[in-house]
Amino acid sequence: MAGLSWDVVLLLGVVCLLGAMVQSVVGLGLGLLVAPVVALVAPSLAPALPLWLALMISGAMVLGERHHVEWRALAWALPARVPGTVAGAWLVAHVSDATISVTIGLVVLLAVGLTLHTAHIPLNRGTLVAAGVLSGVSGTATSIGGPPIAVLYQRQPPEVVRSTLSVFFFVGVLISLTGLRLSGGLPAQSGQVALVLLPTVLGGMLLGSLLRDRVPREQFRLVMLGLCAVSALALLARALL
Fold first, then answer.
1. DSSP 8-state assignment for residue 4
2. pLDDT tens digits, the chain, 241 residues: what are they?
3. Cα separation of 131 and 69, whole Å?
4. Confidence at residue 224, expressed as pLDDT on a 0 to 100 scale
5. Is the peptide bond before 79 cis (omega within 30 degrees of 0)?
6. DSSP calls for 78-141
7. Over the Cα atoms of the chain, what is R_g?
8. Cβ contacts of 5 within 8 Å, gap of 6 or more
9. Nearest-5° angle of CA 179, CA 180, CA 181?
10. I want to staple 93 with a disulfide (CB 3.0 to 4.6 A). Which of 107, 112, 183, 188 is the partner?
11. 3-class secondary structure, 216
């Protein structure tokens, strides 16, 4: 299947299960965990495969918590993702795989650092537009588009964070996939592998919904960030050495 051995598919399934569980609790996490692993074990499927998986989980989460979405904020952030997507698609078409791998690693580490040590950033039209553009670039080029918008929403109620980020991810990923398709950077095999991994994504969501109110959110978040940092450092070591 897409040239992947079954042990690689099994590894991706485990990572998808953990990532979906984390995202079901805190609003993001699947892309942060899956993208570095895909770049390590199946670089030809990056960034398309993580984007397909992000589309699946964000769509499912929107259906579950759509009543808490902040539509006015999305009206500013989502259109801003379009120019960022154009830039990200250009990077995929013109930049080497090694450079993309380094970029993914740096984006993940930056996301971890910002999430741990972020000063208060106002949630207004200007910051929403800036986050939309940055998310378009990073989401299309590296499949990790969550950190810019997540940083803005880190102090909002959990249900608002999960629902609003889910809509942003769903529409944003559709834009990114379209950009990759037009630029020739969307392999058909990526969608096939995503369908095989779909049960693990749904299973992770179910586990996350059961744990959401039982696990201390901050403690769970720190564990997730630690896993992201380890994956990013491994990816950087592979790409540079």
1. -
2. 667 899 999 999 999 999 999 899 888 889 888 988 898 899 889 889 999 999 999 999 988 788 889 999 999 999 999 999 999 888 888 888 778 778 878 887 887 787 677 557 788 999 999 999 988 888 888 778 888 888 788 778 888 888 999 999 999 999 999 988 988 888 889 999 999 999 999 999 999 999 887 877 677 667 767 877 877 887 787 777 7
3. 17
4. 63
5. no
6. HHHHHHHHHHHHHHHHHS-HHHHHHHHHHHHHHHHHHHHS------SHHHHHHHHHHHHHHHHH
7. 16
8. none
9. 90
10. 183
11. coil
Which of the 8 DSSP states describes residue 43?
A: G
* Token pair belonging to 173: 């990923």
Residue 196's Cβ-count burial label (10 Å; 0-12, 13-18, 19+) is middle
Alpha-carbon span 211 to 215, nearest angstrom: 6
Query: Cα-Cα-Cα-Cα dihedral of 116, 205, 13, 97, to 10°?
Result: -50
Q: Name residue 134's amino acid.
A: L
The answer to whether 236 and 106 have CB atoms below 8 angstroms apart is: yes
| Residue 188 burial (10 A CB sphere; 0-12, 13-18, 19+) | exposed
Query: Cα angle vertex 173, ends 216, 191, to 5°?
Result: 100
Structure tokens given for 187 = 């392999």
Structure tokens at 91: 């990077």
Token couple for 56? 């699946």
CB 50 within 8 A of CB 38: yes
User: What DSSP designation does 215 have?
Assistant: S
Q: How far apart are the C-alpha atoms of 89 and 185, rounded to whole Å?
A: 8
CA–CA distance, 173 with 144 (Å, rounded to integer): 10
